[in-house]
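Study this fold:
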Amino acid sequence: MKLASIRNPVRRNWFVDQGFRLDASPYLSGSYEAQKLLERLPNTQLLCQVVRIGNGIFHAGRSSRRWVNDPDFGIPFFSSTDIMKADLSSLPLIAKSMLAANPRLLIERDWTLITRSGTIGRMAYARPDMDGYSCSEDVLRVVADAGQIRSGYLYAFLSSQHGIPMIVNATYGSIIQHIEPEHIADLPVPRFGDSVEEEIHEHIQAAADLRARFQAAVTAATRDLFESAGVPELADFQWHRQPRATGFEVSQVGSASLRAMNYDGRAQRLASIITSVPHRTLGEICADGDLARGNRFTRVPTEPGPSHRIQYWCCPPG
């Protein structure tokens, strides 16, 4: 449950601005509070004023999709959840012919990506290794005008505790919610001078570059692992290029699983390759030789502050 902050309570003039609405949502969503905070700043610009002229905020538009399995004929494709992934090696491939028909599917590095359908407001900064990939129409592209604002700074603001509530507040639709470019074009963006914004941009850019280098190193390490283990064919193993099993017989079903995928010939072949070389089970290398998970518990959100907050980690999407 969201509560009004004692440090920044709901004020009387807010009711006037909202036509004396007495339901809580306009005042506790964080959007209105963020707008009022930005109004106190001496210098702000509208989002539409600091993005690329003509198509600085856009999405790809609806188009059919044709999937391929061969990288020679396809481009990695991001869904609205895939933009949050660190590992991009498992992305599906969309046919290059689809990109020729709709070039707006392509994304470039340093763009801000915002989910615009379903779960609104998830955000990612396009890393160098995302350059030239394709992306769903369910993701907004925000392209900073290099002559007006630094891309890393713009992303830092939009993904902040003030930017996200204002974006989410622009949604429409009662069943499946959406946002369109025109709904966020008038978002106020605070300006703090070149030195401050450049420093913030450099931090964001450095983080994106490090993530790209990290992923390249992980991919190289995975290849080294398989080659050192004597199974180099797994370094380039592509599941969907294996012969499909549209129907198969199983002579013995284990008690651990009735899931058909676990008995698929492709999975069985993959498992046999891995177990053919010296190995240890995951349980054997874990502490006390056992896998475990934490207990379920009730989450109680609090206000930010080191005196009464413990950092909570969860598994990222994907």
